[in-house]
From TrEMBL:
Organism field: Winogradskyella haliclonae
InterPro entries: DUF72, UPF0759_sf
TM spans (from-to): none
SUPFAM superfamilies per the UniProt record, alphabetical: TM1631-like
UniProt name for this protein: DUF72 domain-containing protein
């Protein structure tokens, strides 16, 4: 994930911004004993996650899904897979595994949510629903040049989205957030339609760190800089997630990217250890000694 990458991460202030004033309001304001926590990488293919798979691994997804409980499925951005492929993914993965697929680029980048996008969305969902209970939350990532001048398209898309299918949305044009009136209109729209407001933590784009939850799901796309600061940044996230858990958040979806993706499992394993220790979760640690594999950390 090259978005927001920088050459000199030591020059970046990675301090997490304070929560938006309305973030805690949308939570239940009481500690949650049943927060659903899913942590994973963006990809499972061997070419990106070099060194993660033991020699002789025949099926990468099958192995990955026994190390992590989720995947941010970016492959669906580039291609609308047929229903049969989703069935295969479903069958290869354990019962507690979940997929968080990205909406196809024809929807977000080519048609840009215009009036004739509905057939493409319907075709996508026709395939994706074959994940059944393993379908986590579908997410939409708009192009960085998609600006608030097309807010009417966002309204139509949000209001027409099938409410039984969880959705999260990500905006990258800075004007969605640096104009207070536009930002508040966006947050209200997402709240009213129970759509999660994705938070992207990337070195070069601190301007979109809105820290505004719009429902009881925190969907975080974390982009490491392949630098030692990646770990302290995750420490800060664990502290923030602890606050949200104590405020009653229902779902935490945290996906780790790297400019050099081979280190994503290392960061993810570190994050999971910290969550287990600080949030009281009991997530499996990837490549833990108990699984007979080399420990990542």
């Amino acid at each position: 994930m090259k978005f927001g990458s920088v050459d000199n991460p030591t020059e970046i202030d990675f301090t997490l911004p304070s929560d938006h004033i309305d973030t805690l309001r949308v939570l239940k304001d009481k500690p949650s004993d049943s927060t659903n926590v899913f942590v994973g990488c963006a990809k499972w293919n061997r070419a990106d996650l070099k060194g993660f798979y033991p020699r002789g691994t025949k099926d990468e997804l099958e192995y990955y899904s026994h190390q992590f409980n989720s995947i941010e499925l970016n492959a669906t951005f580039y291609r609308i897979f047929p229903p049969e492929q989703f069935v295969k993914w479903y069958d290869k993965t354990p019962d507690n595994f979940k997929f968080f697929p990205k909406l196809n680029q024809e929807i977000s980048h080519w048609k840009r949510l215009n009036d004739d996008v509905k057939p493409v969305v319907d075709n996508y969902l026709y395939s994706a629903i074959n994940l059944k209970e393993k379908l986590g939350c579908i997410f939409l990532q708009m192009h960085s040049n998609f600006a608030p001048k097309d807010f009417d398209r966002v309204i139509n898309f949000a209001e027409s989205w099938p409410k039984e299918v969880p959705l999260a949305m990500e905006f990258r044009h800075t004007n969605w957030y640096n104009d207070g009136a536009i930002a508040e209109d966006l947050y209200q729209l997402l709240e009213e339609n129970n759509i999660s407001n994705i938070i992207v933590d990337s070195a070069g784009r601190r301007d979109i760190m809105h820290m505004r939850l719009t429902n009881s799901r925190a969907f975080i796309r974390y982009v490491g800089a392949n630098h030692k600061s990646d770990y302290t940044r995750l420490d800060d996230w664990v502290e923030r997630l602890k606050i949200w858990k104590n405020a009653g958040i229902n779902d935490i979806n945290f996906f780790v990217h790297q400019n050099i993706e081979k280190e994503s499992p290392l960061l993810s394993a570190y994050l999971i250890r910290k969550m287990n220790s600080e949030l009281g979760t009991n997530l499996m640690i990837p490549n833990d000694d108990t699984n007979g594999q080399q420990t990542l950390l």
